[in-house]
Design goal:
The protein is mainly alpha-helical. Helices cover 83% and strands 0% of the residues. Its main location: membrane.
Length: 397
């Protein structure tokens, strides 16, 4: 695997840490800026909304730029807004930096994915995707707990400074490792051509399935703390351990999927999604048993991010003539799920359905994703039969 692909994973690690680290800093931010916890929580929502809206917009704006230039620009903006965020005493300014940072992160993700695939070559697309997505899983295991620790020791601003500092060597490495032009040497398709390619039904269904899978993942992940403390019976000190266990599983799943999905992508997606649906239901049923909870958290982390990696690879396979915009829509679908899943889980909790309710919501979302996959299979078979009929020679008279 080219060194530049691992550099992209390092940059994604820094940005993934920023995306998720606020979960451990909200009380500190609220107290320092004299706002409510709900207002501090909006900083996370603003980042998610910025990612969803920013992915296609930034990709469309920067699609004609050389990829190294685009990556450095997006990463430079990301570093700058974290410096501003670390210095400001204004909640409004901090909120604005989260939106702008999300826009830059979304643009970086879209370009990083297509760059990694181009550098790795056609036979290692899933492995390249796994390296980039792996940056997020490492952020869950290392970056987010480290950010929480820094916030506890030196205040929430220290976590922002740390994200900015980690991004600097990534920028230097990108400058040295990523080629200045288009890595694949392919001509740049027109914007209308790329957008038309994204309207294909198979691609849209795949993006919907991807959003549902990620929604299921983050629905439960966002509410693991009340589940393990109030249902499983673990003390508060176990929460970081459980979260890290999910991250370890995620990293293992991404790594394994990267090696399997290039050869058998359909099997990885089909089996992974089926196992995810069963696993979330099993976790909801057995959450009162500590051993079962720990085992399933590890397993579900691996299945969720492994399946997600294979789905991202499929998006690029379905839109070979629109790689940059396909990467942006994959990024948007990921974050639609990351924003919608916790919202649905919160509704279930607010309705008084209990602390297992978000896990049942995850199982339901996976059932919907499986239904979408079945519809995709039926559509593909119908298209295949139509094409075969067209190619069949007409009978002689």
């Amino acid at each position: 695997m080219p060194f530049a692909v691992y550099v992209l994973g390092l940059a994604v690690f820094a940005q993934g840490t920023s995306e998720f680290m606020l979960s451990g800093l909200l009380s500190s931010i609220a107290g320092d800026l004299h706002v409510s916890l709900a207002a501090a929580g909006l900083l996370t929502s603003a980042f998610a909304v910025g990612m969803v809206a920013g992915a296609p917009l930034t990709a469309l704006a920067g699609r004609t730029w050389p990829r190294r230039r685009a990556l450095l620009l997006f990463l430079g903006v990301f570093v700058a807004v974290h410096v501003v965020g670390a210095l400001t005493s204004s909640y409004g300014v901090l909120l604005a930096t989260r939106v702008v940072g999300a826009l830059a992160n979304a643009g970086f993700w879209a370009v990083a994915l297509v760059t990694a695939l181009a550098l790795a070559g056609p036979h290692r697309r899933a492995r390249a995707t796994a390296v980039v997505v792996g940056g997020v899983t490492v952020a869950c295991v290392v970056g987010v707990p480290a950010g929480a620790l820094l916030g506890e020791l030196w205040g929430w601003r220290a976590a922002f400074w740390a994200v900015a500092l980690v991004s600097v060597p990534a920028a230097v490495a990108l400058l040295a490792a990523v080629p200045g032009g288009r890595p694949d040497g392919a001509p740049q398709a027109g914007a209308r051509s790329e957008l038309r390619a994204l309207a294909r039904p198979r691609l849209l269904l795949t993006l919907l399935v991807m959003a549902l899978v990620q929604g299921a993942t983050f629905c439960t992940f966002s509410y693991l703390e009340p589940l393990v403390t109030r249902v499983t019976g673990f003390g508060a000190g176990w929460v970081p351990v459980v979260l890290a266990l999910f991250g370890v599983g995620s990293f293992a799943g991404v790594t394994l999927a990267g090696r399997l999905a290039d050869a058998r992508p359909d099997a990885v997606i089909g089996l992974g999604m089926t196992a995810l649906a069963a696993g979330w239901a099993a976790l909801a049923l057995t959450a009162g048993h500590p051993a079962a909870t720990l085992a399933l958290v590890l397993l579900q982390g691996a299945l969720a991010f492994g399946t997600g990696t294979a789905l991202i690879t499929r998006v690029f396979h379905l839109a070979p003539d629109a790689p940059t915009m396909a990467g942006s829509f994959a990024t948007a679908a990921f974050n639609v799920g990351a924003a919608t899943g916790p919202w649905l889980g919160g509704l279930a909790l607010g309705a008084g359905l209990g602390f297992r309710a978000p896990v049942w919501v995850s199982a339901l979302l996976m059932c919907l994703a499986l239904a979408g996959t079945a519809a995709l299979s039926v559509y593909s078979d119908a298209v295949g039969r139509t094409l075969s009929a067209r190619r069949r020679p007409a009978p002689e008279r």
